[in-house]
Amino acid sequence: MQTTVLRNAAVFRADAAGSWASALVIRGDRIVAVGGDAEVQPHLSGADEVVDLGGRLVTPGFVDAHVHPVVGGLERIRCDLTGGETLAAYVETIGRYAALPDRLWILGGGWAMSAFPDGRPDRAVLDDLVPDRPVFLPNRDHHSAWVNSRALHLAGIDRTTPDPADGRIEQDADGEPTGLLHEGAMALVERLVPADTLADLTAGLREAQSYLHSLGVTGWQDAMVHHLADDSIHRCYLAAQDAGWLTARVAGALWWERGDHDVPAQVALLAARREEAAQAAGTTAGGGRYALPHVKVMQDGVVETFTAALLEPYHGRCDHGDDAGLSFLEPELLREVVTALDGAGFGVHFHALGDRAVRDVLDAVAVAQAANGTADRRHHLAHLQVVHPDDRPRFRALGVAANAQALWACHEPQMDELTIPFLGAERAGGQYPFGDLHRDGATLVMGSDWPVSTPDPWPAIHTAVHRIDHAAPAGTPPLGPDQAVPLGVALAAYTAGSAWVTRLDDRVGALRPGLEADVVVHDRNPFETGDPGSTSVLRTYVAGDLVHEAGPITA
Predict the structure, then answer these.
(1) Across-strand partners of 144?
(2) φ, ψ for residue 206, nearest 5 deg
(3) Count of H helices and E strands in the chain?
(4) pLDDT above 70: percentage of residues in the chain
(5) How many other CB atoms are found less than 10 A from the CB of residue 521?
(6) 334 within 8 A of 361, measured Cβ to Cβ
(7) Of 244, 242, 250, residue with least CA distance to 217
(8) I need a surface site. Which of 350, 354, 361, 485 has the fewest CB within 10 A?
């Protein structure tokens, strides 16, 4: 049984007291000692490895509370636009990918709205690059897709096609589709895309797991586990667990099909999927790595496409009157759905970005608790870009966690050009109110929403603390500096908090004897440097196994 001693370190225990240690011992899959030299001394003579960390930071493994690993992994191995920021970069990447043999569809995605005038790409660019095959490329937030004329033709989309109830087809001044589809309109083309096979999904998950481990991420909540098809993300996780290569701890959020209004039947199907995962875990050594404690309910869209649900209309939207965004589930149906899921023992993972969506979701949780009584469901709201001040204390009162994607809480082109002008000064100044939520006693957890943005926790933590992007030019002002949180709070949210909300806290999320050894060694101590965004990972352990090593460690 391997024994590793990490000493002369800054060990962030992620406990309720916010306490520190200087040494830690891993034996087999467990943490057996945490403290100082006295606590690790008995283990030194029998240790296989003793590592002097020279004051570097040691933390629990990061748990990403809102991520799409399979999708992110697939994008990395397809037409990956996430590394580009300009149209010229996208043209080069798309052209290179389209030249590869056997690409009947051009798939991938990850483009930034800020690379295009008003955030809106046009089909003409894709038509020049790929005139003969359909192109379907979601943007970074996956709330819009850029398609070419061939894809529009195959989908039967023309100037007479009406917008779906939950989406919009962008049109030019002459009424012709531009090749930009928002929200539910994406499905008009996406339904024609060849379905991913289990082999495709497996390749995506393998790529994602390796990448996430390299960033210190040892567990996650997959925020959109599709489960209806035989070749589904759900089946992919089951197969990976059964084959023994799923090292990450995965708490899935099963996808709620909002077009299906037979609530009892859908809840029964979701409960059956949960039981299937539980039975599979029960037959796996170590109790399994995959569970389904939550269901994902998507209540609105995003501000940049005017689909986030707001209490007051968007500013400057003369072409859309008093447009205040979209609610994907009407309040009455939302209350029915949440009450049924809560009653069936599910936590609900909500996408709630606008203040009307947040209020409707909190109201639905209150109705569910009145009907079912309170229970340890661990409901949580992700994104939380606009939260009315009256609703911020309700998170604590209802026991609902705030699931922060903190990287977005800063000035950058998409924020400054496509968000602030349409929110107005008052709403824009109060975006992503993580500081208020923390001060009001809300449980704070964190996630990346990768592939929407990088899954590296440190840039997100940097933004949470400074409200400035780590890569921003000098002189960039903070966005709502009063909504910053301390470094210890942000780090605890990304470890202990996210482990709690994903129901992994009985196994991981803190550094104390008896817990499984999900441990990360970092290259520095950002509590001393004051620059969290420069931090990187040297080693990642999952249950004592070294799953990532950047190189030798010298004191």
Answers:
(1) 182
(2) -60, -45
(3) 20, 24
(4) 99
(5) 24
(6) yes
(7) 250
(8) 485
Give the pair of three-digit tokens for residue 328. 């994907």
Structure-token pair, residue 549:
């090593």
Please tell me the distance from the alpha carbon of residue 486 to that of residue 461, in angstroms, as a whole number.
9
Spatial contact of 6 and 39, defined as CB atoms under 8 Å apart? no
Query: Where do runs of H (alpha helix) occur along 299-406?
Result: 331-343, 355-372, 394-398
- Hey, how many other C-beta atoms are within 10 angstroms of the C-beta on 554? 8
Tokens linked to 546? 């070294």
- 457 with 215: CB under 8 angstroms? yes
CA nearest to 71, candidates 299, 221, 233, 254: 233
Between the alpha carbon of residue 16 and those of residues 40, 326, 510, the distances in Å are: 23, 39, 10
Residue 504 φ/ψ, nearest 5 degrees = -105, 0
Query: How far is the C-alpha of 454 from the C-alpha of 408, rounded, in Å?
Result: 11
- Residue 159 to residues 123, 152, 156, Cα–Cα distance (Å): 14, 11, 10
Would you call 156 helix, strand, or coil by DSSP?
Answer: coil
Residue 220 has φ and ψ, to the nearest 5°, of: -165, 165
Give the pair of three-digit tokens for residue 25: 């011992």
- Radius of gyration of the chain from its Cα atoms, rounded to whole angstroms: 23
Neighbours of 280 (CB within 10 A): 17
- What distance in Å separates the CA atoms of residue 367 and residue 362, rounded to the nearest whole number? 9
What would the pLDDT profile of 208-258 be if each residue is shown by its tens digit? 999 999 999 999 999 999 999 999 999 999 999 999 999 999 999 999 999
pTM: 0.90
For residue 486, the 8-state DSSP code is -
User: How deeply is 426 buried, as exposed, middle or buried, from its count of CB atoms within 10 A (0-12, 13-18, 19+)?
Assistant: exposed
Q: Which two tokens stand for residue 455?
A: 């899954």
Q: What is the pLDDT of residues 143-200, one digit of tens each?
A: 899 999 999 999 999 999 999 988 999 999 999 999 999 999 999 999 999 999 999 9
Write the single-letter amino acid at 253. Answer: A
Alpha-carbon span 25 to 7, nearest angstrom: 9
What per-residue string of b and e applies to 252-273 under the rule 16 or more CB within 10 Å gives b? Answer: bbbbbebeeeeeeebbebbbeb
Q: Give the residues across from 298 on adjacent strands.
A: 351
Both structure tokens of 110: 């990850």
